Amino acid sequence: MNTVLITGAGRGIGLATARAFVKAGWRVIALDKDFSTFDLEEADRIEFDLRNLDRIPDLLEDRGEIHALVNNAGVLYCDPYDAIPASHREEILAVNLEAPAQLIEALAPQMKRRKSGRIVNVGSVAAFTGHPDLWYGITKAGILNLTKAWAKELGPHGVLVNAVAPGPTQTAMYDQLPQSRKDGVMKSVYSGRVCSPEEVAQAILWLGSACPEYINGTTLDINDGSYPR
Predict the structure, then answer these.
(1) Which one, of 152, 167, 90, lies nearest residue 119 by Cα?
(2) Treating both helix axes as pointing N-terminal to C-terminal, what angle do 134-154 and 99-114 enclose, rounded to 10 degrees?
(3) Tell me: the pLDDT tens digits for 118-161?
(4) Is the full-model pTM beyond 0.70?
(5) Catalytic positions, please?
(6) CA 17, CA 6: separation in Å to the nearest integer?
(7) What domains sit in the chain, N to C, each tagged with a CATH number?
(8) Distance CA 8, CA 200 (A)
Protein backbone atom coordinates (compact mmCIF):
# COMPACT_ATOMS: atom_id res chain seq x y z
CA MET A 1 0.00 0.00 0.00
CA ASN A 2 1.29 3.45 -0.93
CA THR A 3 1.67 6.06 1.80
CA VAL A 4 1.04 9.81 1.61
CA LEU A 5 2.06 12.43 4.19
CA ILE A 6 -0.30 15.42 4.27
CA THR A 7 0.45 18.53 6.32
CA GLY A 8 -2.30 20.75 7.64
CA ALA A 9 -4.58 17.72 7.47
CA GLY A 10 -6.72 18.62 10.45
CA ARG A 11 -9.28 20.63 8.50
CA GLY A 12 -10.11 22.34 5.22
CA ILE A 13 -8.22 21.33 2.10
CA GLY A 14 -5.89 19.07 4.07
CA LEU A 15 -8.72 17.05 5.59
CA ALA A 16 -10.52 16.80 2.25
CA THR A 17 -7.25 15.59 0.69
CA ALA A 18 -6.75 13.00 3.41
CA ARG A 19 -10.25 11.67 2.77
CA ALA A 20 -9.63 11.53 -0.98
CA PHE A 21 -6.41 9.53 -0.57
CA VAL A 22 -8.04 7.12 1.90
CA LYS A 23 -10.89 6.55 -0.53
CA ALA A 24 -8.31 5.85 -3.25
CA GLY A 25 -6.77 3.10 -1.11
CA TRP A 26 -3.74 4.92 0.27
CA ARG A 27 -2.33 4.85 3.77
CA VAL A 28 -2.52 8.42 5.06
CA ILE A 29 -0.22 10.07 7.58
CA ALA A 30 -1.98 13.25 8.69
CA LEU A 31 0.16 15.99 10.23
CA ASP A 32 -1.28 18.99 12.07
CA LYS A 33 -0.97 20.81 15.37
CA ASP A 34 -4.73 20.59 16.00
CA PHE A 35 -6.90 17.54 15.35
CA SER A 36 -9.98 18.80 17.19
CA THR A 37 -12.11 18.66 14.02
CA PHE A 38 -10.41 15.61 12.47
CA ASP A 39 -12.69 12.60 12.16
CA LEU A 40 -10.82 10.30 9.79
CA GLU A 41 -10.18 7.14 11.80
CA GLU A 42 -8.31 5.43 8.97
CA ALA A 43 -5.41 7.91 9.06
CA ASP A 44 -2.32 7.88 11.24
CA ARG A 45 -1.91 11.18 13.08
CA ILE A 46 1.18 13.24 13.86
CA GLU A 47 0.53 16.18 16.18
CA PHE A 48 3.30 18.61 15.30
CA ASP A 49 3.91 22.36 14.98
CA LEU A 50 5.78 23.02 11.72
CA ARG A 51 7.49 26.04 13.25
CA ASN A 52 9.82 23.49 14.86
CA LEU A 53 11.91 23.28 11.72
CA ASP A 54 14.92 21.61 13.30
CA ARG A 55 12.78 18.66 14.41
CA ILE A 56 11.43 17.82 10.95
CA PRO A 57 14.16 15.32 9.96
CA ASP A 58 13.70 13.35 13.20
CA LEU A 59 9.93 13.51 12.79
CA LEU A 60 10.10 11.32 9.69
CA GLU A 61 12.32 8.62 11.15
CA ASP A 62 10.64 5.23 11.53
CA ARG A 63 7.66 6.32 9.39
CA GLY A 64 8.51 3.85 6.66
CA GLU A 65 8.36 4.52 2.95
CA ILE A 66 6.47 7.66 1.99
CA HIS A 67 5.44 7.68 -1.65
CA ALA A 68 3.76 11.08 -1.83
CA LEU A 69 4.03 14.34 0.10
CA VAL A 70 1.36 17.04 0.16
CA ASN A 71 2.64 20.33 1.58
CA ASN A 72 -0.71 21.89 2.46
CA ALA A 73 -0.28 23.59 5.84
CA GLY A 74 -0.51 27.36 5.66
CA VAL A 75 -0.92 30.47 7.79
CA LEU A 76 -2.48 33.83 6.88
CA TYR A 77 -3.02 36.98 8.94
CA CYS A 78 -4.96 40.02 7.76
CA ASP A 79 -2.36 42.55 8.92
CA PRO A 80 -1.83 45.91 7.16
CA TYR A 81 1.54 46.33 5.45
CA ASP A 82 2.77 48.84 8.04
CA ALA A 83 1.71 46.87 11.11
CA ILE A 84 2.88 43.28 10.65
CA PRO A 85 4.08 41.76 13.93
CA ALA A 86 7.44 40.03 13.68
CA SER A 87 5.90 36.90 15.19
CA HIS A 88 3.35 36.73 12.36
CA ARG A 89 6.01 37.18 9.68
CA GLU A 90 8.21 34.51 11.23
CA GLU A 91 5.34 32.03 11.56
CA ILE A 92 4.18 32.55 7.97
CA LEU A 93 7.70 32.11 6.62
CA ALA A 94 8.28 28.97 8.70
CA VAL A 95 4.98 27.19 8.07
CA ASN A 96 4.28 28.28 4.48
CA LEU A 97 7.76 28.06 2.99
CA GLU A 98 10.56 26.78 5.19
CA ALA A 99 8.74 23.69 6.48
CA PRO A 100 7.76 22.50 2.98
CA ALA A 101 11.37 22.96 1.88
CA GLN A 102 12.58 20.95 4.88
CA LEU A 103 10.07 18.16 4.29
CA ILE A 104 11.02 17.84 0.64
CA GLU A 105 14.70 17.77 1.55
CA ALA A 106 14.05 15.08 4.16
CA LEU A 107 12.05 12.83 1.83
CA ALA A 108 14.01 13.38 -1.38
CA PRO A 109 16.70 10.74 -0.64
CA GLN A 110 14.22 7.86 -0.30
CA MET A 111 12.29 8.97 -3.38
CA LYS A 112 15.50 9.19 -5.40
CA ARG A 113 16.53 5.77 -4.19
CA ARG A 114 13.20 4.26 -5.27
CA LYS A 115 13.21 6.20 -8.55
CA SER A 116 9.63 7.24 -7.83
CA GLY A 117 7.60 9.63 -5.72
CA ARG A 118 5.26 12.57 -6.00
CA ILE A 119 5.21 15.89 -4.20
CA VAL A 120 2.34 18.36 -4.37
CA ASN A 121 2.75 21.84 -2.92
CA VAL A 122 -0.34 23.92 -2.15
CA GLY A 123 0.23 27.45 -3.38
CA SER A 124 -2.38 30.13 -4.01
CA VAL A 125 -3.49 32.68 -6.56
CA ALA A 126 -1.87 35.05 -4.05
CA ALA A 127 1.43 34.13 -5.71
CA PHE A 128 0.54 35.92 -8.93
CA THR A 129 -0.28 39.44 -7.77
CA GLY A 130 0.69 42.01 -5.15
CA HIS A 131 -1.28 40.48 -2.32
CA PRO A 132 -2.98 42.32 0.56
CA ASP A 133 -1.34 39.93 3.02
CA LEU A 134 2.27 40.71 2.23
CA TRP A 135 4.18 37.76 3.65
CA TYR A 136 1.48 35.27 2.71
CA GLY A 137 1.80 36.34 -0.91
CA ILE A 138 5.59 36.22 -0.71
CA THR A 139 5.61 32.68 0.67
CA LYS A 140 3.08 31.43 -1.89
CA ALA A 141 5.19 32.85 -4.71
CA GLY A 142 8.17 31.17 -3.09
CA ILE A 143 6.47 27.78 -2.90
CA LEU A 144 5.88 27.84 -6.65
CA ASN A 145 9.55 28.61 -7.26
CA LEU A 146 10.47 25.85 -4.82
CA THR A 147 8.27 23.51 -6.85
CA LYS A 148 10.17 24.24 -10.05
CA ALA A 149 13.55 23.99 -8.36
CA TRP A 150 12.88 20.56 -6.87
CA ALA A 151 11.19 19.33 -10.04
CA LYS A 152 14.42 20.09 -11.89
CA GLU A 153 16.47 18.34 -9.22
CA LEU A 154 14.31 15.26 -8.80
CA GLY A 155 12.86 14.84 -12.30
CA PRO A 156 15.84 12.82 -13.58
CA HIS A 157 15.20 10.38 -10.73
CA GLY A 158 11.57 9.73 -11.64
CA VAL A 159 10.09 12.01 -8.96
CA LEU A 160 7.35 14.52 -9.84
CA VAL A 161 7.03 17.85 -8.03
CA ASN A 162 3.97 19.94 -8.85
CA ALA A 163 1.75 22.55 -7.22
CA VAL A 164 -1.83 23.72 -7.10
CA ALA A 165 -2.88 27.36 -6.80
CA PRO A 166 -6.41 27.56 -5.39
CA GLY A 167 -8.54 30.65 -5.55
CA PRO A 168 -11.24 31.42 -2.96
CA THR A 169 -11.97 28.15 -1.16
CA GLN A 170 -14.44 27.58 1.65
CA THR A 171 -12.02 27.13 4.54
CA ALA A 172 -11.39 28.75 7.92
CA MET A 173 -8.67 30.84 6.26
CA TYR A 174 -11.16 32.25 3.77
CA ASP A 175 -13.72 32.85 6.50
CA GLN A 176 -11.40 35.22 8.35
CA LEU A 177 -11.06 37.61 5.39
CA PRO A 178 -12.89 40.95 5.58
CA GLN A 179 -16.13 40.96 3.61
CA SER A 180 -14.74 43.65 1.30
CA ARG A 181 -11.92 41.29 0.28
CA LYS A 182 -14.37 38.47 -0.38
CA ASP A 183 -16.58 40.74 -2.46
CA GLY A 184 -13.62 41.89 -4.57
CA VAL A 185 -12.46 38.37 -5.34
CA MET A 186 -15.93 37.08 -6.12
CA LYS A 187 -16.45 39.74 -8.80
CA SER A 188 -14.03 37.86 -11.05
CA VAL A 189 -15.12 34.29 -10.32
CA TYR A 190 -16.86 32.88 -13.40
CA SER A 191 -19.31 30.68 -11.48
CA GLY A 192 -20.05 33.22 -8.75
CA ARG A 193 -19.20 30.82 -5.92
CA VAL A 194 -16.27 29.77 -3.80
CA CYS A 195 -14.44 26.51 -4.41
CA SER A 196 -15.03 23.55 -2.11
CA PRO A 197 -12.06 21.90 -0.35
CA GLU A 198 -13.07 18.65 -2.05
CA GLU A 199 -12.54 20.17 -5.51
CA VAL A 200 -9.00 21.17 -4.60
CA ALA A 201 -8.43 17.77 -3.03
CA GLN A 202 -9.34 15.99 -6.27
CA ALA A 203 -6.69 17.99 -8.12
CA ILE A 204 -4.10 17.20 -5.44
CA LEU A 205 -4.99 13.49 -5.56
CA TRP A 206 -4.56 13.47 -9.34
CA LEU A 207 -1.16 15.16 -9.21
CA GLY A 208 -0.09 13.00 -6.29
CA SER A 209 -1.11 9.67 -7.74
CA ALA A 210 -2.36 9.55 -11.31
CA CYS A 211 -1.26 12.43 -13.52
CA PRO A 212 1.00 11.64 -16.49
CA GLU A 213 4.68 11.53 -15.63
CA TYR A 214 5.40 14.29 -18.13
CA ILE A 215 3.56 16.75 -15.90
CA ASN A 216 6.38 17.99 -13.69
CA GLY A 217 7.32 21.38 -12.28
CA THR A 218 3.93 22.84 -13.11
CA THR A 219 1.28 24.75 -11.18
CA LEU A 220 -2.36 23.83 -11.68
CA ASP A 221 -4.63 26.86 -11.22
CA ILE A 222 -7.88 26.12 -9.39
CA ASN A 223 -9.37 29.59 -9.34
CA ASP A 224 -12.31 29.81 -11.76
CA GLY A 225 -10.96 33.10 -13.11
CA SER A 226 -10.36 34.74 -9.74
CA TYR A 227 -7.26 36.67 -8.71
CA PRO A 228 -6.74 38.79 -5.58
CA ARG A 229 -7.33 42.53 -5.88
Answers:
(1) 152
(2) 10
(3) 999 999 999 998 888 999 999 999 999 999 999 999 999 999 99
(4) yes
(5) 136
(6) 8
(7) 3-222 (3.40.50.720)
(8) 14
